[in-house]
Amino acid sequence: MAALSKACLATARLPARTQLSSRFLRQQTALPRLRAAPAPIRFPVATTTRRFFYQTPRRPYQNYNPHNHHERLRNAKPLLTDRGFSGFIRSPSTHTVAFLAFLGAVGFYFYNVQTVPVSGRKRFNCFTEESVEAVSEQQVKRIEYDVERQGGRFLSDWDPRTRLVKRVMRRLIPVSGMEDSDWEVRVIDDPRQANAFVLPGGKVFVYSGIIPIARNEDGLAAVLGHEIAHNLAQHVGERMSGQIGINILLGSFVLMTALWGGAILGTQLFGGTVLDMLFSRPMGRKQETEADYIGLLMMAEACYDPEQALGFWQRMEHMQQQQEGAPPEWMSTHPSNHNRIEKIKQWLPEAMDKRAQSDCAGTAAFADRFRRALAQGLLIQ
Ligand SMILES: [Zn+2]
């Protein structure tokens, strides 16, 4: 039984392996045949000298001659020849562009021409007050940096000299019509420098060396009134505009000189100096005269004594004569002190009237009459 069963088991196992029904086999064979695997793609092995990237073939070193560079430089053709440049200048399209640019420049010039109220002078100013103030902000930082770099220092707010300058400014600002500006006063501790300036936007810089020459508040009012007047009359914008005009003229001269084969550098130096003499310096002198006039009336309206302006410029003239000879007026951006003093003498009666008409008339005008009467030994009626 056991053997049978073994045999039965033996025989019973057989069909599972060997006696597969023909139907099963058919089913197996009826399965879709697998496709033959495609033949592997064979990339060409880089066995040749062919390159994937374009390369400039190197020149063999043995043929390199360092002198060739110099020779090639010597024989190199210029990018712009005289002939090519002349052709460019003479072409009708260049003439059209130049003519339109000229018309545009003339239109721009006349659109920006202004009349200065106090002198009636016509001037070209293409900068707004805001744009000039933006430039002066950078200038303020530059000045602060320069003062500190040179070992200088600004006087503190409680220094008597700073307080003096601030006191004068407090009286001048209301009559300047620029109360909205962001006024800041800085006094630089430098007794050797007799100078002061006010940048657009109300940034006041005073060198301590000018205070002894000003002597008193009235003298300092003459200095600061003059500097504020430059701002009121927008002289910085005018100077910046003038510089644009000079640069355009200068560029045209250089181009014309290049056309005729002349020396560009010579034109630049000569043209720059001449244009400076012809335009910048006379403009500077006119601006100074305007600032003197406006500053004088301003200090009078703020109840300062205009005669003190005369004394201040006389002391300045004396000091300059002692130090070194001032350049002749036509070479300088400033009028000579002598001319300045003469002009102030002419304007003094008007300034005195202005002072008498201002709010301080009640006390200041009487004080003036009292002083004059005292000097002449007269009684006030
Ligand atoms: Zn000035």
TrEMBL record:
Name the cofactor(s) required for activity, per the record.
Answer: Zn(2+)
Q: Matching InterPro entries, A to Z? A: Mito/Outer_Membr_Metalloprot, Peptidase_M48
Cofactor: bound how, per the entry note?
Binds 1 zinc ion per subunit.
Ranges of residues in domain Peptidase M48: 162-347
User: Which regions span the lipid bilayer?
Assistant: 248-275
Keyword Transmembrane carried by entry:
yes
User: By its UniProt entry, which CDD domains does this protein fall under?
Assistant: M48C_Oma1_like
- PANTHER family per UniProt: METALLOENDOPEPTIDASE OMA1 (PTHR22726), METALLOENDOPEPTIDASE OMA1, MITOCHONDRIAL (PTHR22726:SF1)
Q: What is this protein called?
A: Peptidase M48 domain-containing protein
